[in-house]
Write a structure and sequence with these properties.
heterodimer; A: about 325 residues; alpha/beta; five-stranded mixed beta sheet; about 45% helix; B: about 500 residues; two-stranded antiparallel sheet; 23 helices; about 75% helix; globular
Chain lengths: ~325, ~500
C-alpha cells in the first residue's frame, strides 16, 4: 500500500507541478482582490475553529486581503462541503478542516453528493493524531497485549466519536476474530470521560490524549505513517494490519477548477503560516503538531487515502447508510 | 490558598483588568438582552477580540461576557417573552406575565439579584472545591446520567399545566422532534428527509425562538385591540411597590434562590447537562413547592423568575469546575472558553493547577469582580431597557421579529434556521391556542438527545444486570424516578376525582 501511495503521490505531484509551472508561466494571479472566506465545517469554539481563526489572521497578512471565518456546521463538515462543491471556483471561498470530511464521509453516507475529487487542495497544515488509546491502569501497552486481553475476556468495550473508528475496528476484529462492543460518544470530551473513569477497555482518539499524560496511554497509530506526537508508537499497518489506516491532516480545500496560480499562492501562505510563531504557540498548546504538506502531495494523499478507505470498506462489506 | 490569592489580587484587580471585565460584562449584557442572542454567540464572537490581550485580561473579558449575557438574557425574556437562549425560557414564562401586569421593573430587579446571588454562590463553590469535586464528577458516567435524566423527566412531567395528557403529548412531541438527525450508534440518518442540514438535528435556538417569541408575536398581532387597552398597564405601574423588590418579595424568593443556586451548581459540575436543565429544574421545583400550578404562568411569579435566574447563572461558574480540574467542559460556554485558553497558550486539564496556578487564581478573583460589576451594570442597564415596553407594540413587534430572524440565522446555519423558526412559530401558535405546554415540549427536546446517548452508552457498558451494583448513584435516581411516577399518578387521580365531584355538584 505504501508503494502504491508513493507511486500515486509522485504521479500527482508531477502533474500538479506541471500545472503549477504552467500557471505561474502564464501570469501571476492578481487574486485576492477582495476578502476571502474561510469556511469551518463546525460550530464556533471547537478545535478546528480555533486553529482556523488563528490561521485566518496569518493568511490575511500573507495574502494582503482579509480572510473571514464563517462557521457552517452540520453533518461533520458535510453541509459546508456540499455547498462549497457547487460554488464558483474563483478562489474566494475555501474550507479548512480535517480531510476525513472528503475522504471518508462521502463513502459511508449515500446522501452526500460530493466526492474528494470535487475539490483541489492547496496544502495541509496540521494533523489530527488518530490513534488507539487505553486507560493508563490497563495491563496491555500495545496491540498484541490488547488482542491477547480481548481473547481472554471474550468481549471488549471501546468508545469512539466517529463512524471512521468503527470501520477500523471492524477491520481489526475481522482479522483477529475479536468480539467488541461499540460505545458511541459525542465529541472528544465524551470519549475522554469514559476512558478516564475506566469504563471502556480502549478508545479511538483524534489526539486529545496528549492533554492527559499519565492517565491515558497510546497503543497504536491509525495513520499510514507514524504520528508526530508518538514517534515510538507503531502504526496498524506496521503491526500487520495491512491497509488498515486513516489519515486526518487539516487541509485547505477549494472547489475543483480553481486557478492553479491561486492554489500556488495559497500554498505559499500556508507554508508561511507553518513557521509563524503564533501558529506554533497554538499547536503547542493544543498539542497538535504542525505538519505542513505542499499542495501536490496533499492532492496525492487525498486520492490515495480515498482509495485506501474504499478498499477497507469493501473488505468489511460495509453497507452505506 | 488565601495568601496566594492576595498575591495575585494585584494583577486581578488592576485598573486595566477591571476595565476589561467591565467592558465584557456590559457587552455581554447588551448582547444577552437582545432576543435570540445568548451567551454562546456573545462569547464565541468575542474570542477573536481577545487575540491581542494578556491571557488574564482575555479570559477575564470572556468570563465577563458570559456572566453579563447570562444575566442579560433575562431582560428580553421578561420584557418581550423572547428568551435569548433556552435556559431563560422559564424566566420568560414566569416573568412576562408580571411585565404585562405592570411589574416589569420589579421582575427585572429580582431577576438581576437572583442572577448575581446564584453566580456568587457558584463561584465560591468553584474556588473552594474545584479540584476535589472534579474527581467525583468524573465518576458520573453514562449509567448515572441516564438515571438522573429519567428522574428529571418524571419531575418535569409535573410541569405540564392543567392537563397532564396534553403535557405528555407535548413532551413526547419534543422527544420525537429531538430524534431528527444522525442516529448515535450507527450514524444512519433519522427523519431527515434527505436534508443534510438536519444531520445534526434541529437547531435548538431557532426552535425555541419560534415556539416562544414568534408564536407570542403572532398571538399578540391577533389581539391588537386588547394590547392597546393594556398599553397603559405595560408602561409600568406608578405604584412604588411594583417597581422595587420589597421585603415581602425577598421573603418569597429567599428559598427559591438558595435552591436554584444549589441546583445550578450541581448541574454545572456534572458534565453533559446544560444550563437549560438547571433553570428548568429549579423553576419546576419552585412551581411545585408553591402549589399554584398553572397560575404560575398565568399571573406570573416573582419567585419563578428568581428560581430560574439563580440556577441559570449558577451553572456558568460551576461548569468551570470540570474544565479547570479535568479539562472537560460542563457547559457550552466552558467549551467555548477552552478555545480561548488554547489561543492564549494554556491547556485546560489536570496540569492547569500545576502549570498556571497564578493565572487560575487571577481568573477566580476576576470572576468575583465580574459578579460585583454585573450588579451595577445590570441595575443601570435595566432602566434603559425597561423603556422598551413603553414603546408602542406596533413599533416593538417588527423589531422583535427582525431580531428573532437574526438570532435564528446566526444560530441555525443561515436561512435554514429562519425556516425552522417559522415552522416552529406556527406550531407554537397552535400549541398556545389549544393549551399544549411549551415547557414539556422544550424539555423533551433538550433532554431527549442526552438521554438517548447516555442510554445507548449504558446498554453497551452494562452487559448484565448484576453489574448495576457498581452504580449506586444510578440506582438511587432510578428508584426516585419510579416513586415519582407513582406519586404523580396518585395526585393526578385525586385531581380527576375532585374535578368529577365539582362537576356533579
Amino acid at each position: 500500500m505504501k508503494h502504491m501511495f508513493k507511486g500515486f503521490a509522485a504521479a500527482v505531484a508531477m502533474t500538479a507541478a506541471g500545472a503549477l509551472a504552467a500557471g505561474t508561466a502564464i501570469a501571476d494571479t492578481s487574486w485576492p482582490t477582495k476578502p476571502v472566506t474561510m469556511i469551518i465545517g463546525y460550530k464556533a469554539g471547537g478545535g478546528t475553529d480555533t486553529k482556523g481563526r488563528v490561521l485566518s489572521k496569518i493568511l490575511s497578512r500573507e495574502l494582503g486581503q482579509r480572510v473571514n471565518v464563517i462557521n457552517r456546521p452540520g453533518g461533520g463538515q458535510a453541509v459546508a462541503l456540499e455547498k462549497l462543491a457547487t460554488e464558483e471556483p474563483d478562489g474566494y471561498q475555501f474550507l479548512f478542516g480535517a480531510v476525513l470530511g472528503v475522504t471518508l464521509n462521502p463513502q459511508i453516507n449515500s446522501a452526500l453528493k460530493y466526492t474528494s475529487s470535487d475539490f483541489v487542495y492547496a496544502g495541509a497544515l496540521t494533523e489530527f493524531q488518530l490513534s488507539m488509546v487505553a486507560p493508563e491502569g490497563r495491563p496491555y501497552n500495545d496491540m498484541a497485549g490488547l488482542v491477547a486481553y480481548a481473547k481472554e475476556k471474550g468481549v471488549l468495550k471501546y468508545a469512539s466519536l466517529s463512524p471512521g473508528a468503527k470501520i477500523i475496528m471492524q477491520a481489526i476484529a475481522k482479522q483477529d476474530g475479536l468480539n467488541v462492543d461499540y460505545i458511541p460518544t459525542k465529541g472528544g470530551r465524551g470519549m475522554v470521560q469514559l476512558v478516564l473513569s475506566n469504563q471502556v477497555d480502549f478508545a479511538f482518539s483524534g489526539g486529545i490524549q496528549s492533554r492527559y499524560p499519565g492517565k491515558i496511554k497510546t497503543i497504536a497509530a491509525i495513520s499510514s505513517k507514524r504520528l508526530g506526537n508518538y514517534p515510538d508508537t507503531p502504526t496498524l499497518d506496521e503491526l500487520g494490519y495491512k491497509g488498515v489506516s486513516m489519515d486526518a491532516p487539516t487541509v485547505a480545500a477549494f472547489p475543483k477548477g480553481t486557478d492553479p496560480a491561486i492554489i500556488a499562492k495559497m500554498e505559499a501562505a500556508l507554508k508561511a503560516a507553518s513557521t509563524d510563531p503564533e501558529m506554533m504557540k497554538i499547536s503547542k498548546s493544543i498539542k497538535m503538531p504542525i505538519v505542513y504538506i505542499p499542495a501536490a502531495d496533499t492532492n496525492g494523499l487525498v486520492a490515495a487515502s480515498t482509495a485506501s478507505i474504499a478498499k477497507m470498506l469493501e473488505s468489511i462489506d460495509y453497507k452505506k447508510q | 490558598m488565601l495568601e496566594e490569592l492576595s498575591s495575585v489580587a494585584g494583577s486581578a484587580f488592576a485598573v486595566g483588568n477591571l476595565a476589561w471585565i467591565f467592558f465584557g460584562v456590559t457587552l455581554g449584557y447588551l448582547v444577552g438582552a437582545l432576543p435570540g442572542l445568548g451567551k454562546g454567540t456573545a462569547t464565541a464572537v468575542a474570542i477573536p477580540l481577545t487575540f491581542y490581550l494578556e491571557p488574564l485580561s482575555a479570559i477575564a473579558f470572556l468570563v465577563g461576557i458570559s456572566k453579563g449575557s447570562t444575566a442579560g438574557s433575562a431582560v428580553s425574556a421578561i420584557l418581550l417573552n423572547t428568551p435569548g437562549e433556552p435556559s431563560s425560557t422559564p424566566t420568560a414564562m414566569a416573568g412576562y406575565p408580571l411585565a404585562r401586569a405592570g411589574k416589569a421593573q420589579k421582575a427585572l430587579k429580582m431577576g438581576l439579584f437572583a442572577s448575581v446571588l446564584g453566580d456568587f454562590f457558584s463561584t465560591i463553590v468553584l474556588i473552594l472545591i474545584a479540584q476535589e469535586l472534579a474527581e467525583y464528577a468524573l465518576g458520573i458516567g453514562p449509567v448515572e446520567l441516564t438515571a438522573i435524566l429519567a428522574f428529571s423527566m418524571v419531575f418535569i412531567a409535573g410541569l405540564s399545566g392543567r392537563s397532564m395528557i396534553k403535557g405528555l403529548i407535548a413532551g413526547l412531541f419534543g422527544i420525537l422532534v429531538s430524534c431528527v438527525g444522525l442516529e448515535v450508534e450507527t450514524g444512519s440518518p433519522r427523519l431527515t428527509f434527505g436534508l443534510i442540514e438536519l444531520y445534526d438535528g434541529l437547531p435548538l435556538i431557532p426552535v425555541a425562538i419560534g415556539m416562544l417569541a414568534l408564536a407570542e408575536m403572532m398571538t399578540q398581532i391577533g389581539q391588537r385591540q386588547r394590547l392597546l387597552d393594556e398599553a397603559d398597564l405595560l408602561k409600568g405601574s406608578s405604584k412604588r411597590e411594583d417597581q422595587i423588590v420589597t421585603l415581602d418579595d425577598w421573603k418569597k424568593c429567599f428559598r427559591p434562590i438558595l435552591r436554584g443556586s444549589l441546583i445550578g451548581t450541581v448541574i454545572g459540575i456534572l458534565p453533559g447537562l446544560g444550563a437549560s436543565v438547571g433553570s428548568f429544574l429549579s423553576y419546576g421545583a419552585e412551581r411545585r413547592a408553591s402549589g399554584r400550578g398553572a397560575d404560575f404562568e398565568e399571573s406570573g411569579a416573582i419567585e419563578g423568575v428568581a428560581a430560574a435566574e439563580s440556577a441559570d447563572n449558577a451553572v456558568v461558574p460551576a461548569s468551570f469546575v470540570p474544565l479547570f480540574a479535568i479539562g472537560i467542559p460542563g457547559s457550552v460556554i466552558a467549551a467555548i472558553l477552552i478555545s480561548a485558553f488554547v489561543i492564549h497558550g494554556i491547556t485546560p486539564g489536570p496540569l492547569l493547577f500545576l502549570e498556571n496556578k497564578e493565572l487560575i487564581l487571577g481568573v477566580y478573583l476576576s470572576m468575583i469582580a465580574a459578579g460585583v460589576i454585573l450588579l451595577f451594570v445590570g441595575y443601570f442597564g435595566q432602566n434603559i431597557f425597561a423603556r422598551i415596553v413603553r414603546v408602542s407594540p406596533a413599533l416593538v413587534m417588527p423589531v422583535v421579529v427582525f431580531l428573532c430572524c437574526v438570532g435564528a440565522y446566526l444560530q441555525g446555519g443561515g436561512t435554514f434556521g429562519i425556516g425552522v423558526m417559522i415552522i416552529f412559530g406556527i406550531i407554537g401558535f397552535f400549541a398556545k391556542k389549544y393549551d399544549f405546554s411549551f415547557v414539556t415540549f422544550l424539555i423533551g427536546f433538550v433532554i431527549g438527545p442526552s438521554f438517548e446517548l447516555s442510554l445507548r452508552q449504558s446498554i453497551g457498558l452494562v452487559t448484565n444486570a448484576s453489574e448495576l451494583i457498581d452504580h449506586p448513584v444510578a440506582i438511587v435516581f432510578a428508584v426516585m424516578a419510579v416513586v415519582g411516577v407513582w406519586r404523580l399518578t396518585v395526585m393526578q387521580r385525586k385531581q380527576m376525582a375532585e374535578m368529577a365531584k365539582s362537576q356533579t355538584n
